[in-house]
Design brief:
The chain is mainly alpha-helical. The protein has helices at 16-22, 25-68, 79-92, 100-122, 126-158, 163-217. Mean pLDDT is 80; it is low at 1-10 and 221-230. One of its GO terms (biological process) is protein import.
Length: 230
């Protein structure tokens, strides 16, 4: 039933659920879309928090390994293991005609390529946060405009402009904008935080790659302090 044509004395449910159930079908669709977007965003956030925490530990382990001069023979599928494996493979593919600078550049490029591949995987889902953060308020605003437009239309038909009649319809419409902001604000904050954390992980690896590349470039017989046992 349209809130603007409800009989006198009939109270309106102003709870969140009540505002949703009494809203126009278009406004309901907007609300559902925003709720789904919010669930998707929080799923991405929690997944990235876990992955970044693991990546930070791997970056710390890789840096410790490089600075200690330990063996690069690593197992597993972590980011540090893949970067180390790329270093070993590039080191083994030596050319006697290379200068030290050329050898270092080639080894570092191989490690950075392996790192970039893993970082791209970590960034999956971040565009959803950026998109939700920038569009959710406007999607909610669309629902609000549509709801207010319908409320005014109903008011014009009923010829009753009392606040008791207008308020429920306006509240339902504004609820869509509120949901849009609830989606957008955490999405933007999470996107900024996660991209910063990923950037720090990258910077840590790049620093270690520079140290390791320099060491391997001047060492033609061993990688790290351990010879490649083959």
């Amino acid at each position: 039933m349209d809130p603007t044509t409800a009989p006198a004395g009939v109270s309106h449910d102003m709870s969140f659920l009540g505002l949703f159930l009494q809203a126009d079908p278009i406004v309901k669709s907007v609300m559902i879309l925003l709720v789904v977007a919010s669930i998707a965003c929080w799923t991405v956030v929690f997944e990235k928090i876990v992955r970044i925490a693991v990546a930070k530990r791997q970056a710390k382990a890789f840096d410790a390994l490089v600075r200690s001069g330990g063996s690069l023979e690593a197992s597993g599928k972590g980011m540090d293991a893949q970067v180390a494996a790329a270093a070993i493979e590039a080191w083994r593919d030596q050319d006697s005609s290379e200068t030290r600078a050329e050898r270092r550049d080639r080894i570092e490029r191989a490690m950075r390529a392996a790192l970039t591949t893993r970082l791209k995987a970590m960034q999956t889902g971040l565009p959803l946060l950026a998109t939700s953060g920038s569009t959710a308020p406007f999607i909610g605003l669309f629902g609000t405009v549509w709801g207010i437009m319908n409320s005014f239309s109903s008011i014009a038909k009923s010829q009753d402009t009392s606040l008791a009649v207008v308020a429920p319809g306006i509240a339902e419409a504004l609820f869509a904008t509120a949901i849009g902001l609830v989606v957008a604000i955490p999405a933007v904050m999470a996107y900024n935080k996660l991209t910063t954390d990923i950037g720090r992980v990258q910077a840590s690896f790049v620093s270690s790659i520079g140290i390791l590349g320099n060491r391997l470039a001047r060492d033609r017989t061993v990688h790290g302090r351990a010879a490649a046992a083959e």
